[in-house]
Design brief:
single chain, 122 residues
Length: 122
Amino acid sequence: MNIFRTSSSWFFKEAPVPLRLLHIYIRGDAIVLAPFILVLLVIGIFSWQWMALLFGIFSAFRSLGEMIYWIHQQFGNKAYRPYDFGFHKLDNNAVYILYQLISLVLLVISTGFVLYLLLGWQ
């Protein structure tokens, strides 16, 4: 399957239950989160504590992000179309989710890096 030919109907289908434990709620979440989870697993090879810490940070921010997302769904306007990374068949709502998840992953990596630096200075 060519990932850039993903349709909105595929993107918004519910993910299987085991993936929901990893915060992948719809199939489209996996576009960003599957590589992130693989990175966490590689980190876990070297340090299960760092893997757990980063996943914990991710889980906290994901929950906050989901809450904000659903509040915006209730009250926000979806007229703006940001750059779609080549996912031309996705609707605006799908692109917004990709942006939310990319930002969240970067926030987790950044927070983890800051914590790593701070813990290293003790």
